[in-house]
Design brief:
Elements: H1 6-14, H2 22-32, H3 47-61, E1 73-77, H4 80-92, E2 98-100, H5 106-112, E3 118-122, H6 126-129, E4 139-141
Parallel strand pairs: 1-3, 1-4, 2-3
EC number: 3.6.4.13
Catalytic activity: ATP + H2O = ADP + phosphate + H(+)
InterPro entries: DEAD/DEAH_box_helicase_dom (IPR011545), Helicase_ATP-bd (IPR014001), P-loop_NTPase (IPR027417)
Length: 142
């Protein structure tokens, strides 16, 4: 059984989620253990919350030890639509998020990456961000 923090449960309930789905029950413990996880599951089966919940709970548990001016997680998604969905899910938990797309906006990255807890960036931005962010995050989700 997967135990979630009370704050997480409250937010999930406010958003109409009363129980974890099978993919979440299987993967959340692995993410919490910092295991490499690869999930293949149909649309709508709960994959996003499978990795967002452990990230959110990690950030919440470690707030005193986390530099809030540094990126805590980098999530790379294959599509703009998925990137926006992930950003919305993260914000549901009250965590600051920044969603960026494939356009060349290096200056935007320079200005913003130091001020967010979470970045959700399309794969096209990975090259621009590699030297700036990826070595400094607790979570890298691709």
């Amino acid at each position: 059984m997967v135990e979630l923090e009370e704050k997480t449960l409250e937010i999930l309930k406010l958003n109409g989620i009363t129980e974890l789905l099978p993919v979440q029950k299987l993967t959340i413990p692995k993410f919490r253990e910092s295991k490499d996880v690869m999930v293949q599951s149909p649309t709508g089966t709960g994959k996003t919350l499978s990795f967002v919940i452990p990230i959110i709970e990690f950030i919440n548990k470690n707030q005193q030890n986390i530099n809030k001016n540094k990126v805590q997680a980098l999530i790379i998604s294959p599509t703009r639509e998925l990137a926006l969905q992930i950003e919305s899910t993260v914000k549901m938990f009250g965590i600051e998020a920044l969603c960026m797309f494939g356009q060349n906006k290096s200056n935007e990255v320079d200005r913003k990456y130091e001020t967010v807890n979470k970045q959700n960036i399309s794969q096209k931005k990975t090259k621009d961000l590699n030297k700036k962010i990826t070595r400094k995050v607790f979570f890298l989700i691709m």
